[in-house]
């Protein structure tokens, strides 16, 4: 037992040193509560055209099918709340996309953490995941006591709100497991009331096919005309449900230089966005997550908002 505790402490201390906001650990086992919820959500086609959500159903719910012999899921949070934001009278970009693509930033940190575990503890095998494999990040983070899943279906933490990325290391090392925290949404419905497209169809259930993040990033064809005038000027992603959440008044700016926006980004006006060229797009979003929607996708979104 003492060894498990020592290893867990070592990992958590190193995670903090690497800049992670917090670190929690849960047992790598089948997610029983999530299974019917995920099945029901998929059956109602709330994943829209995100076909990948239907793949690897078993792996999504059972980490031992993803990483052979895995014993622990180490969940980590990394803050991305910016110190400066775009002006409100503008086409808006989700705050997580201001700087360098988080996949690269976090993958490097996770590799460092895994190397540290192997050097300090010995032969430990595992894999790092950042929102790019069939892993239910929020469910694992909640199971590991890092927060609770709010009515907007994002992870929420009392001290820091929800403007952070979630990542995992799934490893074949037994550790000391954390306990889940309690839900602190209470009777608040701020996120449900504020959602511009009414995508939060009931508390804790988001219809992905109506979510502005889905419409501006995942959807590859034209945005359905029913959303005309409902998009609140969001051209990439959407932060409304997080911006209105009372817990986010505790958000503090991140200290990750790679997440700082390109100097030109915050000064761009609506007119600049409407006239953006492919060269400017490549320069401003050189290493950004915005590249996922491509220049043509961003132009499509801006055109839809302008019309």
TrEMBL record:
Cofactor binding comment, as recorded: Binds 2 [4Fe-4S] clusters per monomer.
Any one GO BP annotation for this protein: tRNA queuosine(34) biosynthetic process
Compartments, as annotated in UniProt: Cytoplasm
A single Gene Ontology CC term: cytoplasm
EC number of the protein: 1.17.99.6
Assigned keywords, A-Z: 4Fe-4S, Cobalamin, Cobalt, Cytoplasm, Iron, Iron-sulfur, Metal-binding, Oxidoreductase, Queuosine biosynthesis, tRNA processing
Reactions performed catalytically: epoxyqueuosine(34) in tRNA + AH2 = queuosine(34) in tRNA + A + H2O
EC class of the enzyme, as a word: oxidoreductase
Residues holding cob(II)alamin: 60, 131, 155, 166, 213, 238-239
InterPro entries hit by this protein: 4Fe4S_Fe-S-bd, 4Fe4S_Fe_S_CS, QueG, QueG_DUF1730
Binding site for tRNA: 220
Record-listed [4Fe-4S] cluster 2 binding positions: 195, 211, 238, 241
Protein family according to the UniProt entry: Belongs to the QueG family.
Name of this protein: Epoxyqueuosine reductase
Organism: Snuella sedimenti
The gene coding this protein: queG
């Amino acid at each position: 037992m003492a060894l498990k505790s020592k290893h867990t402490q070592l990992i958590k201390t190193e995670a903090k040193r690497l800049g992670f906001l917090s670190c929690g650990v849960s047992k790598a086992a089948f997610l029983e509560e999530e299974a019917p919820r995920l099945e029901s959500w998929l059956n109602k086609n709330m994943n829209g055209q995100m076909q990948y959500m239907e793949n690897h159903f078993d792996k999504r719910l059972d980490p031992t099918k993803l990483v052979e012999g895995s014993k622990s899921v180490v969940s980590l949070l990394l803050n991305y709340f910016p110190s400066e934001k775009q002006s409100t009278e503008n086409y808006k970009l989700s705050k997580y996309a201001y700087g360098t693509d988080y996949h690269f930033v976090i993958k490097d940190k996770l590799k460092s953490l895994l190397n540290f575990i192997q050097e300090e503890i010995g032969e430990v095998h595992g894999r790092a995941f950042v929102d790019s494999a069939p892993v239910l990040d929020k469910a694992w983070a909640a199971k590991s006591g890092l927060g609770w899943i709010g009515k907007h279906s994002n992870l929420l933490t009392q001290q820091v709100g929800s403007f952070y990325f979630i990542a995992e290391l799934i490893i074949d090392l037994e550790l000391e497991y954390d306990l889940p925290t309690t839900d602190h949404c209470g009777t608040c419905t701020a996120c449900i009331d504020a959602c511009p497209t009414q995508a939060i169809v009931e508390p804790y259930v988001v219809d992905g096919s109506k979510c502005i993040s889905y419409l501006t990033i995942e959807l590859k064809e034209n945005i359905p005309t029913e959303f005309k005038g409902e998009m609140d000027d969001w051209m990439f992603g959407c932060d409304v449900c997080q911006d209105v959440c009372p817990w986010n008044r505790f958000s503090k700016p991140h200290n990750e230089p790679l997440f700082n926006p390109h100097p030109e980004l915050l000064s761009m006006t609506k007119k600049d966005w409407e006239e953006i060229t492919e060269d400017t797009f490549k320069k401003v979003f050189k290493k950004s997550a915005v590249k996922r929607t491509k220049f043509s996708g961003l132009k499509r979104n801006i055109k839809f908002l302008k019309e």
